[in-house]
Amino acid sequence: MQQMKTNCMKNVFSLFLLASAFACTQEKVVEITISNPSSIDRTNEITEITQDAVAKFEGESFILTDSKGMQVPYQVTYDQKIIFPVTVKAGENVTYKITAGIPDTFPTITCGKQYPERVDDIAWENDRIAFRTYGPALQATGEKAYGCDIWVKCVSEPVVQLRYDTELNPETKAKIAELRKTDPKAAQQLAEATTYHIDHGNGLDYYKVGPTLGAGTSALLANDSIVYPYCYKDFQVLDNGPLRFTVKLVYNPLTVKDNNNVVETRVISLDAGSQMNKVSIAYANLTEATPLVTGIVMHAPSEDFQADAAKGYIAYADPADPTNGQTFIAAVFPGKLNDAKAVKFSDAEKAERGAEGHVLAYGTYNPGDTYTYYSGAGWSKWGFKDAAAWYNYVQQFAQKLQEPLTVTVK
Question: Does 1 have pLDDT greater than 50?
Fold first, then answer.
């Protein structure tokens, strides 16, 4: 009888331990419900929650799973957000769970870095598109390149590092220089085989920025004239994948009217799956509300653009290249714009800038604020067969900004 009592007590104790363990496990589950209020299906859209949502894990590693129990990649960003891709149909909702555990390793989709070997370029990319901005070493040469550059790609894996490595390989460059003395044709063939200005199967760099705003760069206006920003002065990479790249750029002082100490800070981030960068800019030492524009350079006379101040976007189709296809560019804003239109250069400015003008979105910068918008690009050889497809993407992107996914954490 005593043995039966002992065994019974052991069973009760074991059940207590199991119940305690179960309760403990239950306490360490976070449910995230994502609702889509829009009429557009959202596929692999990067969504974020604050890191406070996982406070109960007390620093333990955790796993994020979808409604089917499949692991989902995530990233903890520099500003303490947890970001992850979400797929939810129009008007519906889905639930994701966070539990304790060691997450699987997922490939890096979005990444970037500075390339001092190429006059301090900073280049970054995701699975859809790549971009470049210019640094102090380029400015020191006197070359004028004010805006953001586009590198088109047609593969989902990273390609930028490979392109730089191939183009700038010292041995290859030395070989080309030597061949130019003895066999110019062979030198040209080797140069063409290694340059990133020719598509070798993953895309190329064929977009032209020059002394313009390029692919959606913003600039202040002074007496109706654009105060062009030059190359960045200092930089800091804040996020470097796997899902988001973020870089902070600080520029040399600008002269705006009588103020010669206006300093721009620009934070650019690109998420996996998106054609569009998020751009947040602030100007130190600016003492009054100042008009600014966001511009897309027009390389040739064209009416192939859209500019909608009420819906908050500008979009443009660059002239098609018979070999390389067509690049599409856009900038999208969270709210209404003051104006949006194409502005042609004067004949003198056309000659100076090597372009026809800009498609411009007009806004206002208020001292102490941050001005945020989105800019990006697409390619006819990677997801956008024509300008109509690009304009549809841009219009839907603008709609998504107005109807964001709603996130509930419990």
Answer: no
